[in-house]
Amino acid sequence: MSNLTINADRLIRRIEELGSLGRDAQGRLVRVAASDMDRLGRDRLVSWLKEAGLEVAVDRIGNIFGIWRDNANTDLAPVMLGSHIDTVIDAGIYDGCYGVLAGLEAIESLKEAGFAPARPLVVAAFTNEEGVRYSPDMMGSLVYAGGVGIEDALAAVGTDGTVLGKELERIGYAGQHQPGFLKPHVYVELHVEQGPVLEREGIAIGAVENLQGISWQRITIDGEANHAGTTPMAMRRDAGVAAARVISFIADRASASRARTVATVGTIAFEPNAINVIPARAIFTIDLRDPNEASLKAEEAALAAFLDELAASAGVTVQAESLARFEPVTFDARVVALIEAGAKAAGLSCRRMTSGAGHDAQMIARIAPSAMIFVPSRGGISHNPAEFTAAGELIAGANILLGVTAGLAVD
Ligand code: HGY
Ligand code: MN
Ligand code: MN
User: What tens digit of pLDDT does each residue of 178-188 get?
Assistant: First the structure.
């Protein structure tokens, strides 16, 4: 099997075709979890899974699985590949989708080549990895790994007031299987790096050995609406200015810290949101990340102290609500070594690295040995329509996935 390769044209064609589904009137890719746009991508993926002759299963949180059992020993736990096909708002076409379609491609190519795996092979597309509409992110794989109860997840209320379980029913992906129904023997996720390291160092493959911790919070600051023209600055309780101070605080701390913390405020809204009214309320989200749990905890503590001081000095009230909190994860050393060996055997440069982004692999690592393979992202850009990885790099990564999968499935 060592000289087996994927059907490159089929993979590239499917990535581009899936990338064309779920676009809004401005042409932005918006396949946000459990939306009508997400259904378009889900339906197309299911049609490809069936075309490949795989058994299709959907669990209660809407995770989709393509299963190849044919001549395998079905008493053995499967080798699982996968990622996600939901996207952020105005997304690129590779984030998540590449890993799902390359996983399908690896299984389909092995099947076509007459490979007889000792154990079943499965490709998974996990629900709501992005967490843009429903928190937390990596929700489908978190439920699958038993990290949050299925009923709690289905009851999640979205940023648009919808309920996840109802939306999954509405789009036809409230499946029957219990999450976790197929416990993987091992899980391997192929993904674009979404960062600048591989491109900057001219390296083809990343063998991802760990993934940083994530802390998501929603902050609500309440001040007092008042007239923008008549209210002296000293008499204001301005929620907007208070929010600006918080944003500067976390950005300055992260930039100055010797730790590897990164801090982002990606959403903000004022109420009543009028040009000549001092904001009575500011609601915004904070995304803090660090590969070291102690550093991440220190950043959270510093933020909490700053919010307390701000409330006292600015005459506002501040509420902080946790939306997601995941500790850093270390992947399985044996699987990481297999990825490195696969790259070496293929004559590809490879380096070990940390993932800055969250991924389904960090959740499946709770129930099975897991690791990730990265390929370069042009300019390190992601969560942006300019996200790009050259076809040659995509194909190289998928062939490494194929080889690692075959190696993991022989016994
Ligand atoms: O937030 C993340 O890192 C991932 O894209 N959900
Ligand atoms: Mn992703
Ligand atoms: Mn993403």
Answer: 999 999 999 99
- 80 three-state secondary structure: strand
Helix or strand run (H / E) with residue 338: helix 333-345
Report the nearest-CA residue for atom 4 of ligand 1.
358
**Which sequence spans correspond to the domains of the chain?**
8-212+328-409, 213-326
Q: Which residue, 202, 222, 230, 226, is CA-closest to 348? A: 202
Q: What pTM does this model have?
A: 0.95
Q: 321 C-alpha vs ligand 1 centroid, how far in Å?
A: 19
- CA gyration radius for the chain? 22
Give distance in angstroms: CA of 358 to centre of ligand 1: 4
Two tokens, residue 282: 């500011």
The predicted pLDDT at position 1 comes to 55
Whose CA is closest to atom 2 on ligand 1? 358
Architecture in CATH for domain 8-212+328-409: 3-Layer(aba) Sandwich (3.40)
Low-confidence spans in the chain with pLDDT less than 50: none
What pLDDT is attached to residue 259?
73
Tokens of 71: 């001549």
DSSP assignment, residue 177? B
The protein residue whose alpha carbon is closest to atom 6 in ligand 1 is 130
CA angle 102, 411, 330 (to 5 degrees): 60
Question: What is the dotted CATH code of the domain comprising 213-326?
Answer: 3.30.70.360
Residue 66 identity (one-letter amino acid): G
Give the pLDDT confidence score for residue 122 in this predicted structure: 98
Query: Quick one: 2 exposed, middle or buried, by C-beta within 10 A (0-12, 13-18, 19+)?
Result: exposed
Q: What is the distance between the alpha carbons of residues 273 and 288, in angstroms, rounded to a whole number?
A: 26
- Decide: 358 in ligand 1 pocket, CB within 6 A: yes
Q: Which atom of ligand 1 is nearest to the CA of 130?
A: 6
Helices (H) and strands (E) in the chain, counts: 12, 14
Asked if residue 357 has its Cβ within 6 Å of ligand 1, the reply is yes
Residue nearest atom 1 of ligand 1, based on CA coordinates: 358
Query: What's the confidence (pLDDT) of residue 139?
Result: 98
